[in-house]
Amino acid sequence: MKITSDFLVIGSGIAGLSFALKVADRGSVSLVTKRGISETATDLAQGGIASVFSEEDTYEAHVQDTMVAGVHLSHPDIVQLVVESGPQAIRDLIDWGVQFSRKEDGTYDLTREGGHSQRRILHAKDVTGREIERALVEAVHQHPNITLYENHIAVDLITEAKITQRRVKPDRCLGAYVLDIGNSEVVSFGARSTVLATGGAGKVYLYTCNPDIATGDGLAMAYRAGATVANMEFMQFHPTTLYHPHAKSFLISEAVRGEGAILKRRDGSAFMEAYHPLKDLAPRDIVARAIDNEMKTHGDDCVFLDITHKGADYIKDRFPNIYQTCLSYGIDMVSDPIPVVPAAHYLCGGIKVDSWGETDLQNLFAIGEVSFTGLHGANRLASNSLLEGVVYADRAAQRTLKLLAEKETIYPSIAPWDSGSATNSDEEVVVAHNWDEIRRCMWNYVGIVRSTKRLTRALRRIQMIQEEIADYYWDFYITSDLIELRNIATVAELIVRCGLQRKESRGLHYTIDYPETDDIHWKQDTIIRKNF
Ligand code: SIN
Hints:
The protein has helices at residues 14-23, 41-44, 59-69, 76-95, 128-142, 217-224, 254-258, 284-298, 312-318, 320-328, 385-406, 428-445, 452-475, 480-501, 519-522, and strands at residues 2-10, 29-32, 49-50, 110-111, 121-122, 146-149, 152-164, 167-180, 185-196, 229-230, 235-242, 262-264, 303-306, 338-347, 350-352, 364-366, 371-372, 527-528. It is an alpha/beta fold and 532 residues long. Strands 1, 2, 6, 7, 8, 9 and 16 form a seven-stranded mixed β-sheet that branches. A four-stranded mixed β-sheet has the order 17-15-10-18, covered by helices on one side.
């Protein structure tokens, strides 16, 4: 089967949905998403969206906080651009129907998170992402030019190649092959403009607060297609996810610390003072490493987050979702500290794009967590990512609309998917085993504290697994598990290779072999692209 439209959007979080809404009046949109439309990381975002919204705050302060959190690897021009676009991006969300929490006087209630010098985070209690997703999904459902394809997982980008210096190299994106999971059929989606908004890759790690969909699909596809990828070593570990065997690393928002919660050891003593002057509101990389150190030093399985001093009424009103979820696991945060551990949360690197979200393949854009814009540097400032998603959706929309207006309307002609001599698999165990092995290997060898020896070991193992996946991939009909496995293996390889390149410690990349930050040699991005 073949489907053609003006725009192909892959992913249905804040970036993909807002891009679709921005372009839908000007052309047909195919919106492809691999599960239900709301099964996204956006939907799980608790804290909020950062923007200068109060009289006491300034763009300069937001820029400065972002640069400091990113350990001065963020690109200053991009930080300025995103920060200054913030208020308009918030107004767009409000126009689409998002309702942020307000104070009694009717003004927006601004919260704080780690690394912010001001209260500047708009939120909808502790379910900000759910509220944003709700409003955008409603708007998308109402738009006649957007056709939604749920349970469709992208397999690979379709590209046209160019011969340069006797090499055949992909040059232009024509769309994507997409597996219709329900019918086990690969559909060819052709488009004049393709947008990757597939989110992050937390599932590369054994413990993550990301949803199951976060398998780095867009990143892996773009890398295979020849797009440049950058700064993959900077995987952000959120310091506080619920420690409970059945809680699947449920996030305890940094806003809980923003509103006064204190990290404590098992014996009740607070420890963040020993690590950073901002104590519990230090940047995330510092807090996650401090917790890791405390757990290793004291042989504990977790540390504790104490907000009991704020009282029952306040806690239940400000954090209703966290309160109820903890209670469902037998933890009453009104009277007891919450047991917490760090878990993989956000990928600061990604597909390299320019200030319009354009990749180095023609007609291919990347927006949201899948992209690398230069905003986050070596460590993302909390709540800057939802903002980046809306700002870049708008910029990519402006850019692609301008480019398409300059061209004749020709829809690409693409070849159908060819499954060759593939048969049904009789060894599903290979997929299950390799999923588990990659995630364990990444957690143990490529986690919060790294070393060259561990990274080298990890690379060896991942490359062996990749060989096995490649054999399997060409012999059997593809399934969504196999597609995701192939993608997490690619993303794992890219994280390790970037980690091995960076011979210093900066932000989220901490290695015992190069414990210092080296501004002379390493104040630069790590760039990777496939050889053709
Ligand atoms: C949180 O609520 O702690 C997550 C916010 C973010 O990652 O930006």
